[in-house]
Write a structure and sequence with these properties.
Layout: H1 3-16, H2 21-29, H3 31-43, H4 46-49, H5 54-72, H6 77-100, H7 120-123, H8 140-148, H9 152-163, H10 168-175, H11 179-198
Helix pairs in contact: 1-2, 3-5, 3-6, 5-6, 6-9, 8-11, 9-10, 9-11, 10-11
């Protein structure tokens, strides 16, 4: 376990022991990691970037995270990172509905651009976890639902590497499994997501 992960786990242990203030410190300690995650996710959605900045999205997500911590009370770093990911997802979804719903400002803005065509399935044939998120914001909901439907092991590995920005080795340490196991779970997750979005395996995969 790397130093940053160990520090987060220490704060989670303190919170579980009754130190409610540890949650505030936990969010503060992980702010940089969450900012990087939010920035990376938002960068892939230029249509939403037209209306929102990274800091604005992050602030909304952190408020959601703070409210959910006392109710959910995560006890492991993995659980905390998954909870943080979920809040960023929900914030992006809320903003998407706000701007691109029927009466949304973005949906009715003549110069917003974008043809709205679905490109998710084709883009899921990624070669690394830095490529291939849905091209249209309105596809995010379906993609997120597909992630939620993954088997637990595959979902945990996918979320850690893809959304949390963990390395494969770092994910293996968090999950307590081998690097080979994480790679196998990532490959399985990719295949399941592709099948969910299009109904067939990625071209060229065995």
């Amino acid at each position: 376990m790397d130093d940053s992960t160990a520090r987060l786990q220490g704060l989670l242990d303190a919170a579980s022991g009754g130190d409610e203030s540890a949650y505030v410190d936990l969010i503060g300690r992980s702010r940089e990691r969450l900012e990087l995650l939010t920035r990376a996710m938002l960068r892939r959605y230029p249509r939403l970037k037209r209306w929102e900045e990274t800091d604005d999205v992050l602030q909304r997500a952190m408020l959601k995270l703070h409210r959910s911590l006392t109710a959910t009370r995560p006890t492991t770093t993995l659980h905390y990172l998954k909870l943080a990911n979920t809040q960023i997802h929900r914030t992006l979804l809320d903003l998407t509905r706000h701007y691109y719903g029927v009466h949304g400002l973005g949906a009715n803005h003549k110069t917003d651009g974008g043809n709205g065509d679905s490109q998710v399935a084709d883009q899921l044939a990624w070669s690394s976890p830095s490529e291939g998120l849905p091209g249209d914001l309105l596809e995010w909901a379906a993609f997120h639902e597909a992630i939620e439907s993954l088997p637990g092991d595959e979902r945990d590995a996918f979320e850690l590497v893809w959304y949390s920005g963990q390395t494969v080795r770092g994910s293996a340490e968090v999950l307590g499994v081998s690097v080979r196991t994480v790679v196998r779970r990532l490959n399985r997750a990719r295949t399941l997501l592709y099948e969910s979005m299009k109904g067939e395996r990625p071209g060229g995969d065995a």
